[in-house]
């Protein structure tokens, strides 16, 4: 058994350009729980108020597989363990398991902490012991382990033994600088496993481009706990990529770290994490990239049609991805069928509805739409084709005025006309903090007379992605909205060269989806 430990929400968020809201983090935790991740590192509650608030809200989640882990350090030398605010912040989260890191490399103890090597060992042992005596299971991250082990192996091992003496449940060996190579990692892990009678883990960074390889070879050397981030997000060049580690462990080494059905969710999870980070998904990423199983022309295309094994090292569907024959319109229909089969079970790839949905999705994809984090938009599109579903309202027109108003700065006002359920026209206006907020307020004001349940809907997240940076201010943008009615959450998407039009599209679909999911169900 190998434990999977995700640190996307903590270590991954330290990557340049990566930022998650609390709502993002809660959503990611839900999908990682469904994926079967054993531990999810939620943040560093001793470092900022945002993570403190996150852990309060995370306590309300009903998780089936995952355990949410707070992260911190050994106590500061000027405190005793029971006085240390960092250790107490870990306890305040209420988590059963906590992770702390300590200095393994004598260089860091002396030059960074400015303490003696012996005092550093005492701090490690006493920090772990304090948390353990408070009833917590402790995962100990040995920071800079491989550098320290290379420099002075006896001291590096002594630091691990100090954590073990304090009561640590797992010792994680960290390649914090990301500079060590696979065979060196494997040999070091093998020595530690032989020396200590505790589970050993690996935490690799990707500064030498071998983060996944280092993690996999560590497992082959006896590590039973693997830490990483989705899509390799992380500081500098990033962390070891769980999107690559998980399928390699399961499909190449035969280690059932998650189930077959859970593995099929991998691509969707990877793309969702990119979308919520507001970063483009890496098309050439192993296993889960859009190009991972794409074939274009010539001998490759001819061979792949005859036998998929000729140019595909695994079945793409096993990781939730799909084969793409770039010169053919046949690729992708089976994925659509799989996605909608619970609601529409009696269709095959030649059904007119499947073909129509496929064609519309391909055209939408060409225009810049992506549905990984916009399931509500996809469900509305599907229902329009299969059920002839029509929205409960329609835009007649709108106008937005943005003006500078003296000392109060910019002011936005939106005027809107929409049709109600019986064709009547509602004409209203509203102010807002900006043009998007103004049109949102006006739309709600117009529709709530007909549909009071829309008062429950709240916007919880708003993201804008520029799709073509070469076009400057005339570039097409994709707007992704996350909405909630207090019970469910859903995502919608809009695309346009005009950010207001893209926002309008995503907003109207958000409200339309609320009405759609609340509609009376047919017997």
Task: State the gist of this model.
By secondary structure, the protein is of the alpha/beta class. The chain is 39% helix and 20% strand.
Structure characterization notes:
With 523 residues, this protein is of the alpha/beta class. Helix 8 links the parallel strand 6 and strand 7. Helix 1 runs antiparallel to helix 12 and helix 8 runs parallel beside helix 9. The protein is globular.
What is the fourth-level CATH superfamily of the domain at 74-225?
Aldolase class I
Q: How many β strands by DSSP?
A: 16
Shape type: globular
User: Helical residue percent?
Assistant: 25-40%
CATH topology of the domain at 74-225: TIM Barrel
The whole-angstrom Rg is 26 Å
Tell me which CATH architecture of the domain at 74-225 applies here: Alpha-Beta Barrel
**Strand arrangement in the largest pleated sheet:** 1-2-3-4-5-6-7-8
**Count of separate DSSP helical elements:** 18
Average of pLDDT: 90
Strand content: 15-25%
Q: Based on helices, strands and strand pairing, what is the structural class?
A: alpha/beta
Distance between the termini: 46 Å
- Seen as an oligomer or otherwise, the chain set is single chain
Largest sheet: 8 strands, parallel, barrel
Low-confidence stretches: 327-331
């Amino acid at each position: 058994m190998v434990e999977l430990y995700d640190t996307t929400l903590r270590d991954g968020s330290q990557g340049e350009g990566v930022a998650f809201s609390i709502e993002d983090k809660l959503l990611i935790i839900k999908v990682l729980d469904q994926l079967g991740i054993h531990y999810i590192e939620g943040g560093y509650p001793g470092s900022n108020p945002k993570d403190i608030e996150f852990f309060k809200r995370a306590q309300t989640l009903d998780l089936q597989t995952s355990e949410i882990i707070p992260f911190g350090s050994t106590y500061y030398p000027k405190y005793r363990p029971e006085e240390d605010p960092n250790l107490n912040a870990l306890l305040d989260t209420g988590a059963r398991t906590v992770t702390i890191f300590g200095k393994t490399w004598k260089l860091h103890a002396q030059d960074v902490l400015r303490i003696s090597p012996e005092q550093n060992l005492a701090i490690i042992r006493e920090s772990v012991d304090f948390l353990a005596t408070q009833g917590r299971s402790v995962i100990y991250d040995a920071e800079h382990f491989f550098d320290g082990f290379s420099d002075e192996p006896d001291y590096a091992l002594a630091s691990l033994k100090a954590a073990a003496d304090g009561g640590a449940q797992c010792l994680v060996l960290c390649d914090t600088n990301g500079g060590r190579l696979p065979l060196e990692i494997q040999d070091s892990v093998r020595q530690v496993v032989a020396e200590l009678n505790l589970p050993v883990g690996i935490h690799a960074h990707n500064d030498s481009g071998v983060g996944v390889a280092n993690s996999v070879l560590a497992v082959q050397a006896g590590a039973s706990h693997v830490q990483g981030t989705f899509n390799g997000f992380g500081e500098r060049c990033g962390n070891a990529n769980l999107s690559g580690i998980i399928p390699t462990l399961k499909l190449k080494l035969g280690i059932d770290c998650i189930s077959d059905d859970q593995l099929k969710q991998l691509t969707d999870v990877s793309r969702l994490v990119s979308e919520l980070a507001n970063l483009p998904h890496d098309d050439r990423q192993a296993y889960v990239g859009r190009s991972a199983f794409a074939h274009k022309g010539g001998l490759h295309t001819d061979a792949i049609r005859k036998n998929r094994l000729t140019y595909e090292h695994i079945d793409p569907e096993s990781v939730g991805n799909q084969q793409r024959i770039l010169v053919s319109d046949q690729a992708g229909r089976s994925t659509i069928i799989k996605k909608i089969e619970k609601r529409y079970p009696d269709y095959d790839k030649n059904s007119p509805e499947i073909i129509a949905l496929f064609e519309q999705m391909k055209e939408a994809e060409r225009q810049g739409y992506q549905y990984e984090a916009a399931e509500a938009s996809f469900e509305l599109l599907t229902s329009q084709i299969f059920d002839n579903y029509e929205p409960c309202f329609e835009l007649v027109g709108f106008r937005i005025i943005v003006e500078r108003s003296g000392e109060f700065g910019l002011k936005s006002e939106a005027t809107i006309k929409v049709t109600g359920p019986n064709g009547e026209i509602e004409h209203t206006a509203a102010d807002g903090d900006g043009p998007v907020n103004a049109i949102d307020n006006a739309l709600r004001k117009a529709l709530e007379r007909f549909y009071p349940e829309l008062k429950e809907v709240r916007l919880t997240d708003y993201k804008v992605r520029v799709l073509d940076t070469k076009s400057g201010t005339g570039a097409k943008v994709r707007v992704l909205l996350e909405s909630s009615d207090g019970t469910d959450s859903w995502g919608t998407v809009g695309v346009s060269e005009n950010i207001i039009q893209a926002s309008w599209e995503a907003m109207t679909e958000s409200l339309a989806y609320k009405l759609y999911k609340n509609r009376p169900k047919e017997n």
